[in-house]
Amino acid sequence: MNSLHIVIAGGTGHLGTILAKHFHGAGHSITILSRTEHSSSWPIIAWDGETLGAWISQLEGADILINLAGRSVNCRYTPANRTSIMNSRVRSTRVLGEAIGRLASPPRLWINSSTATIYRHSLDRPMEEDTGEFGGHEPGVPETWRFSIEVARSWEEAFFSASTPRTRKIALRSAVVMSPQRGGAFDILLRLVRFGLGGAVGSGQQYVSWIHDADFAKAVEYLISNEKIEGPINLASPNPLPNCDFMRELRRAYGAKIGLPAPEWLLEIGTRLLQTESELVLKSRRVVPGRLLRSGFQFDFLDWPSAAADLVNRWQQSA
User: Fold this and answer.
1) DSSP H helical segments within the chain, as ranges?
2) CATH of 5-318, one of 3.40.50.720, 3.30.110.10, 3.40.630.30, 3.30.420.10
3) Which tens digit of pLDDT belongs to each residue from 52-61?
4) 257-298 pLDDT per residue, tens
5) 161 in the Ramachandran plot: left (φ > 0), alpha (ψ -120 to 50) or beta?
């Protein structure tokens, strides 16, 4: 792949850091659009994620735009937080679409974040792009789950409705990206294991969809290179597994002897105390990357035991 100029909107977070390091290390030019400024190995340009401004010049002649902007969902879904979660995704996507429409030389590819949460709670079968069922209308689904799906659908609608005839578009329906970075999902899960709390959550039968950070970066690079691919893409390991098995393999990778389970009633108390939502661990996300596999993409980490062992080792080395 020739050297590219890649602009990453909302690129100072967990996923942005993974991609920026990967592509910068491969010799590509990186520019970050961010609401916050801090020191970095690549330029960080200020934007508010809502209005057009001088930042548009960074997109003129750029090869790739990757939009990862969006408020963290690791919070209670209060009215204020719901508004922030929705607006940070939809408005940033809309303003980027408007900006691309004004450019003489727009990026040839626009990759926009989405989420695997768009699919229904699934214990019965995997969810691919072509056959997966959107959620939100299942009997007994908690209202907070319906909100998450509403966000996902509004996000993709804003993305695909943008008129960008000269720009290919891909929506990343990403599962949880596992990396040893402090503060990320893997770090939080491993902390539970380290303190003997890494048992099954709830029934333990809900599926966990995940992807190793190396495969996440590799897949994005693959999508850039394969110009015939567009539309929604599931970014997830081909092998989601029940929560009880997921946590058991994580304990095994770390060498933990015990892992106390967290029944649903206790989880609800704990998530309230931690100011987050139980949906993040109780909803069954059985998502598989149908389009990636059919196109020939090869994962380096197909199964959770090997991925967990690698991640634990890297986490320990960085401690």
Assistant:
1) 14-25, 79-102, 143-161, 185-194, 213-225, 243-254, 264-273, 279-282, 290-295, 304-318
2) 3.40.50.720
3) 999 999 999 9
4) 999 998 887 777 767 766 777 787 889 999 999 999 999 999
5) alpha
